[in-house]
Amino acid sequence: MKVAIIGGHGFLGQRLAKRLLQKGEAVGPDGALQPIDELILIDQVAPEAPLEGVTTIIGDVAEPGFFDRALGDDVTSVFHLAAIVSSAAEADFDLGMRVNLDATRALLELCRAMPIAPRLVFTSSVAVFGNAPPMIEDDTPALPLSSYGTQKVIGEYLVNDYSRKGYLDGRCLRLPTVVIRPGKPNRAASSFASSILREPLQGEMAICPVDTGLSLWIQSPRVVVENLIHAHDLATDAWSDGARILNLPGLTVTVAEMIEALARASGDTSLIRHEPDAEIARIVGSWPGAMNTPRATRLGFSKDETIDAIVAAFRQEELGGAR
Amino acid sequence: MKVAIIGGHGFLGQRLAKRLLQKGEAVGPDGALQPIDELILIDQVAPEAPLEGVTTIIGDVAEPGFFDRALGDDVTSVFHLAAIVSSAAEADFDLGMRVNLDATRALLELCRAMPIAPRLVFTSSVAVFGNAPPMIEDDTPALPLSSYGTQKVIGEYLVNDYSRKGYLDGRCLRLPTVVIRPGKPNRAASSFASSILREPLQGEMAICPVDTGLSLWIQSPRVVVENLIHAHDLATDAWSDGARILNLPGLTVTVAEMIEALARASGDTSLIRHEPDAEIARIVGSWPGAMNTPRATRLGFSKDETIDAIVAAFRQEELGGAR
Known about the structure:
2 copies of one chain form a homodimer. By secondary structure, chain A is an alpha/beta fold. The first copy, chain A, has a domain at about 1-175 and about 220-245: NAD(P)-binding Rossmann-like Domain (Rossmann fold), CATH 3.40.50. Chain A is built from 11 helices and 14 strands. In chain A, the strands form 4 sheets. In chain A, strands 5-4-1-6-7-8-12 form a 7-stranded parallel β-sheet, sandwiched between helices. A 3-stranded mixed β-sheet of chain A has the order 9-11-13. In chain A, a hairpin with a 5-residue loop joins β2 and β3. The first copy, chain A, is globular and about 55 Å long. Chain A starts with a strand and ends in a 6-residue tail after the last helix. The interface of A and B includes residues 93, 154 and 241 of A.
């Protein structure tokens, strides 16, 4: 089978690719495990360190005709992770619409044109909830207060309807904030949530733009990747019509609790500079800090147990246990 | 002020135009009543009987650049009623996407480009609810089971986000099934709901494709038009961010109760031929039959009192009281 990862050079895409290479197989259209014959990574930028054993395609996913040129009609599965992140989509509305909405539609159209409807895993976000109640339930309506959240919820509805029509076999996951994201800060409004742990653990300064009382709903990169593959491999009939959109389980932590975990891991908490940013505080503050996710739990999705375990895994996996 | 009605030659558009001409004024950008200087009706087809005192523009709303050519940049208010209806959008997915999604986006982009953000009233539908619970509440999540419902809910989210960004001042109304729609049957899955009253009242045969126990959530054309204007005229701060989408009040009737009302109005119920249609029954059966709409009531939206009053008004207004 042929598997494509759109946004394959981002940190989640790279991690997902490594895990798929390691497993060597995934569930195919007939519902049985099949060997992965080709793994295609598509992104607008080149990978930092190219992975061996993958096909690399660089290009602008929002350019008309891009997907038709980049992918054949024999793709079995697509993981669609590519997005303009929250603060960037808020700052550049047209860019967000082009990538988060138009490119998603182009991808869905390509899937529809394939002779065998592929499985598609679409990453949405808890950003679809704006000024949400303190506890989000499986059936809480999405009312985003950001263009990013709006574009994500529209993507979910499209994937849902294309699936209902039989054009593809879609699964939408609303991801928690991913902590600890390795690499550099990006333009996700939640970028600080990784920075305040990642940078001090490496002896560098980090900026915290929000109140330390803010609650976040988080999941580690390792658990996100396991959940992406789990969503892909689940049987089609686990995703009934109108129920292809799923809130993932997660862990509630306050910013203060993250800083306490940093201290326990011997990180220097004085490296965090508190610089309030009203716009970031507004966007992140409108996202849910806690969710009740019985449906995802019933379907076998997993969550992290503690923030300390997430910090320990980051030190082990990304810092080589050196600090 | 300059008011445009997209879909202005449909029966609701024509009725809305007449009512606006009669009133002669509407609430302008400053929040005060202003005279309507120009009323522009846009549609793909010519009107059956052209209205005096309006500007008529015929064209394909989904054609790129159409709105830029058809409308200036000085439009104060837009009523967007144009749509490919439910069964037609289900039968021709691409046509539905082109008109219900792409044309709506093009219209929103034109509004965004105007120097003064116009008021926009967007007609959505109870079709956004699929396999809904027996009673829909103001915060019941939309999970459509039709492409029409999907396209409408996407339109709502776009109007909501464009409004939040200040690109326009949008108001989305989820309309009940409109009964009694005059004219001929159309490709709305709910078209039978008008036919089974309208045709027999005129001595003609009608087809009923659903079980008579089916409950419908209905509103008369007169009340729909009053609610469209009410939505337009309401102050901007009645429509807070993320709350620009409204379930309208309505009346719950079963198909059997409609047929009983027909009998009371001296209509010949033997003119209704019962021919079950599984696809129509599936689509309409997934829509809500009852809704609890405290928010709309608080905002001053109105509803019909009885099905008999709706039948009487139709006979008076459309049949000239002749039958």
